[in-house]
Amino acid sequence: MEQSSSSTVATIDENLLSDDDINNRKMTDIITSLRAKSPWESDGEKTQQINKSIIEFICADIQPLSVVDNIGFKRLMTIALPKYNLPSRFFFTNNMLPKIYEKVEARVKKELNIANFVSITCDTWSSRDGAHSLLSVTGHYIIDGIAKFIVLGAKPIKGRHTAAELKELLRFVLNNFEIEEKIFLIVRDSAEVMIKVANDLGFKSIDCFAHKLNLVFLICPIGFYNFQSIWDGMRIISDENNLKCLIERIKKFVRKLRKSKIQRNEFENIQKIIELPQLILIKDSEVRWSSTFDMLDRFISNRQAISLLSAKDPSLPKFSSDDWAVLLTLKQILLPIYKATNELQKRSTSISSIIPLFKLVCFSLEKTGELMNVKKSILEGLKKRMGEKFDASGSLKRLAWEDNRELVLSTIIDPRFKLSPYLPNERHLEYTNWLIEEAEKVSGIRDQQLDEENVEQELDAPQGMESLAAEFEENMASSVESLLVAPLLSPSELNVRQRAEVEVNDYLHTKKLPLGADPFSYWFSQNAIKWPMLSKLSTKLLSAPASSSESERVFSTTGLIVSNLRKSLKVENVEKLLFLHHNMKIFNFDYE
């Protein structure tokens, strides 16, 4: 009834219209219909938005630029967006990729312009076929009490990896982002060429401490591969308890189980019967000693299932009760080093943690127990890697890190560590003067905008290290810091030097924070108002990461970008794709 009434009204309205009005209405309907079916303009807002989203999808998800030519992708776009004309890969390669790169690069420059200090990490990478070689550079800085990082570049290396070539590439990156005058420290591997690059550019640099720990387990005759320094630290192991043979038998067991589906199924059945988690045994890697620890840890946790399977299958290696006892002891020895390695590779860990973690690892190795010769040799290797200084008689005088201002000062300005018990007592006053001198130097640097609210946050405490740290601090308790006496003058009556002394002594007299506290947010807001000179200095001393892992992470995606399907990809485009892959996600795609 309603429909009939509606039709009648429409007919009456139409009868009231002139012929011209009726024709105009019909023409309007035709135009509207045609517009609904016609494609969007190539330079229209909607088209540009989708073009941008597609190149972001390619970069963020490591897709080949040729994905836009794939039949499945074309079909998807036709169904989802029938009015969108999908351009070819050449449009995205030659137009969209450079366009988005320029925008993200500008966003990075804007971000770095705010930072007072920047530290960088560097690493090199080459593809297996040698067609691509890159130098990665990441920037690390602190803004508003937050530690940040950015990928500055993955520059193509043309020719040999000489110090001269790498120096010019690094200089180009620093000049491009206008941060050469802001550089505090370069964190690099211990290769001579990278040391020379830093020296030639006039920058202070430091070895990646995670590499140092890794090297303590690398050239080791126990099967931690031909890496480079459990040879220093574990020379004895191949003779004591025949550990090399034991590790090799574990590797053989894991290899056989992973290759044989029948044996693997039998192993899983045993795990199920004895109610163990059905986790496959881990194969170690030739590049990370920690993967060998993971292999041992998983192996030990499946001891019962392994013993039952090896008893049934004569082709598998056998393990005695003595073997298991040695493995358990070895795991206990290596566990603190494993945890320290993982802590150092965290994005939030700065160089301020290097000395404390080194001291905690040494403390754990010096404790009495079984396999003391193994502990001693690891300890010797670790101290050697940290640098030893001897007096004229050849006796060990001290470790080189004790004279490294960057390491020492970053430790002191970290409110979790300060002076005791991580730094030698006899040098506390000397180190305090170092901190006062550095605070004076930054007094003229502009302030970052402060938030009046206290924004102290927490980080994840180094897992399993809290109890070790508490035990260490109790054993090394010292009252040296009580010798520091803060001046009684008010800040308004003091010159720059005196203000620095007041701030440093006041700070050192406050209670230390727990290991899980965030040292970056500590120096922002209220403490920045209380100790402005030290707050500025903290953005310098805490900016450097403890490891060059961030540069290595850049290359973890390079192999995916330079895949067999994309061998013809120009190295310049590899650089752009890497730069965008990391930085777009850092900015949460908000870069315009």
TrEMBL record:
<keyword id="KW-0539">Nucleus</keyword>
<dbReference type="GO" id="GO:0005634">
    <property type="term" value="C:nucleus"/>
</dbReference>
<dbReference type="Pfam" id="PF05699">
    <property type="entry name" value="Dimer_Tnp_hAT"/>
</dbReference>
<keyword id="KW-0862">Zinc</keyword>
<feature type="domain" description="HAT C-terminal dimerisation">
    <location>
        <begin position="503"/>
        <end position="584"/>
    </location>
</feature>
<dbReference type="GO" id="GO:0008270">
    <property type="term" value="F:zinc ion binding"/>
</dbReference>
<keyword id="KW-0479">Metal-binding</keyword>
<dbReference type="InterPro" id="IPR008906">
    <property type="entry name" value="HATC_C_dom"/>
</dbReference>
<dbReference type="GO" id="GO:0046983">
    <property type="term" value="F:protein dimerization activity"/>
</dbReference>
<dbReference type="InterPro" id="IPR052035">
    <property type="entry name" value="ZnF_BED_domain_contain"/>
</dbReference>
<keyword id="KW-0863">Zinc-finger</keyword>
<dbReference type="InterPro" id="IPR012337">
    <property type="entry name" value="RNaseH-like_sf"/>
</dbReference>
<protein>
    <recommendedName>
        <fullName>HAT C-terminal dimerisation domain-containing protein</fullName>
    </recommendedName>
</protein>
